[in-house]
Amino acid sequence: MYRVVFAPEAERQLVDLYKQLAAVASTEVADAFVGAIIESCESLRTIPMRGTLREDIRPGLHTFGFRKWVMIAFEVSRKRVTILGVFYGGRDLPSAFEE
């Protein structure tokens, strides 16, 4: 089993998404949606190599979609999955990983 960790940037993105949803919908909606994203990320513990390998953006980068509007970017190393980013609403994934 792999350990799933969230990079600081991914944590910030989840907090920002929560705030946006709470403002336009409700805290209940924000709790449920962000909670489901986290649960989906945590499922990488057992199947870490799923999704799409995006070596064109960054070596070792994997992505998978969540409910049409969210792209989750992560990397897998020795028994660890690091969630690098949670991109909502069509944000430009390649530019997020430019050096």
Overview of this protein structure:
This protein is α+β, with helices and mostly antiparallel strands and 99 residues long. The chain has one domain: YaeB-like fold (2-Layer Sandwich). The protein has three helices and five strands, in the order βααββββα. Strand 2 and strand 3 (61-66) form a beta hairpin. It starts with a strand and ends with a helix. The mean pLDDT is 93.
Briefly note the CATH topology name: YaeB-like fold
Weakly predicted, low-confidence segments: none
- Specify the CATH homologous superfamily: RelE-like
By secondary-structure content and strand pairing, the structural class works out as: alpha+beta
Count of β-strands: 5
| Rg computed from alpha carbons, rounded to a whole number of angstroms | 13 Å
Distance N terminus to C terminus? 31 Å
CATH architectural arrangement: 2-Layer Sandwich
Short synopsis of the structure:
The protein is an alpha+beta fold and 99 residues long. It contains three helices and five strands.
Secondary structure: elements and pairs:
Elements: E1 3-6, H1 8-24, H2 27-42, E2 52-53, E3 61-66, E4 70-77, E5 80-88, H3 93-96
Parallel strand pairs: 1-5
Antiparallel strand pairs: 2-3, 3-4, 4-5
Helix pairs in contact: 1-2
Keywords:
99 residues; alpha+beta; YaeB-like fold; globular
